[in-house]
Design goal:
The protein has 174 residues and is α+β, with helices and mostly antiparallel strands. The protein contains five helices and six strands, in the order αααββββαββα. Helix 2 packs antiparallel against helix 3.
Length: 174
């Protein structure tokens, strides 16, 4: 499994390609990857078992091969979850927050602190159980709302406080 170093935006990205110097990218908690993989297995194991059972019952021993398709899809999903998790990065700069993610289609979101209206931290029951939270940034433009999933509650609270403080400082300057 490939994880990008803390000072790069993710696999295949370089700060030169975006002409930015983020000053240190941060990644997500491994607990998010663990939670998503667990949810994948909870859904996939019954499907694999049922496909193999039905294929074996109707087609005999060769019918067990029917279970190969959902098994292959599960393996692909497992790897995709790992790649997607390692592609998420965020960096706090002097005037804005950078968020990069995506494996096939890469996205870089730049949120100026002065444009932030609300910083929201949420954690559902499963997220709480796994010790992760999500930070959502709301701005005046609905299309620029940004999300950082899978942070530890401590990091989410620190980021919320930091972003709020920087946003208020930027608003005071205006």
């Amino acid at each position: 499994m490939h994880t990008a170093p803390a000072d790069t935006p993710g696999p295949g990205w370089s700060s030169h390609s975006w002409r930015i110097d983020p000053g240190g990218w941060r990644g997500l908690s491994p607990q998010l990857r663990r939670l998503r993989r667990l949810l994948l297995l909870v859904g996939a194991v019954p499907v694999i078992g049922l496909a193999s059972l039905i294929g074996g019952a109707f087609l005999g021993l060769p019918g067990l091969v029917v279970g190969v398709v959902p098994t292959a899809a599960t393996v692909w999903g497992w790897r995709s979850i790992g790649r997607a998790w390692s592609a998420w990065r965020y960096a706090e700069r002097e005037d804005d927050l950078l968020i990069s993610h995506g494996t096939f289609v890469r996205r870089l979101v730049v949120v100026p602190y002065g444009r932030m209206q609300l910083v929201d931290v949420t954690a559902g029951p499963l997220a709480q159980r796994f010790g992760i939270a999500q930070v959502r940034l709301h701005t005046a433009a609905a299309t620029t709302d940004a999300v950082i999933p899978g942070l530890s509650p401590r990091e989410a609270a620190r980021l919320r406080d930091s972003l709020t403080e920087r946003g208020e400082a930027q608003a005071a300057v205006l």
